[in-house]
Design goal:
- The protein is α+β, with helices and mostly antiparallel strands and about 150 residues long.
- About 25% of the residues lie in helices and about 25% in strands.
- The protein has four helices and nine strands; from the N terminus they run ββαβββαββαββα.
- The strands form four sheets. Strands 3-6-7 form a three-stranded antiparallel beta sheet. Strands 1-2 form a two-stranded antiparallel sheet. A two-stranded antiparallel sheet has the order 4-5.
- The longest helix is centred in the C-terminal third of the chain and has 12 residues, at about 100-110.
- The radius of gyration is 18 Å and the shape is globular.
- The mean pLDDT is about 90.
């Protein structure tokens, strides 16, 4: 909280800093209600969506911004997990096409202090969840053995 970047994450250039004074759990919980259910979301210029065959992030890195249409996404749940100082942790269950960095940016605006993502962990995608994850070492061992963790030949 308190720092907005051009990309909406910590890799971006800082474009604004504002005090976080007065932001407490109650204000965060109240603001989160705007980011639950069906919402319209304008994709970030730092997304992989293509414009005339070019990913938006490539245009953004060249300083080019193009008009993007809002998309309807569904935020099934958006819960505050932790809050301390200028950092908060959310657990979000959302539909495909949702941009979490955009939620962070917009939440920062609702709170009046700006915000960006410093860490993001995708715990599920489609039919896959964390139980399907493999370490690099497990992948290497499966490759050497000639099969993956499910027993299907590589």
């Amino acid at each position: 909280l308190g720092v907005a970047t051009d990309s909406g994450d910590s890799d971006g250039q800082v474009i604004n800093t504002r005090p976080v004074e007065g932001v407490d759990e109650a204000r965060i919980e109240d603001a989160l209600r705007f980011f639950r259910g069906e919402i319209d979301q304008v994709p970030s210029m730092f997304s992989a969506i293509k414009h005339q065959g070019q990913p938006l992030y490539k245009l953004a890195r060249q300083g080019i911004s193009v008009e993007r249409e809002a998309r309807r996404v569904n935020i099934y749940s958006n819960e505050l997990v932790a809050f301390s100082g200028d950092e908060l942790e959310l657990e979000i269950h959302c539909s495909k096409g949702t941009y979490v960095r955009t939620i962070a940016e917009e939440l920062g605006e609702v709170l009046g202090c700006g915000a960006h993502v410093i860490a993001l962990r995708r715990r599920a995608a489609g039919p896959y969840d964390e139980s399907d994850l493999m370490t690099f070492e497990e992948l290497e061992a499966a490759r050497e053995k000639g099969s993956d963790k499910t027993g299907i030949s590589c």
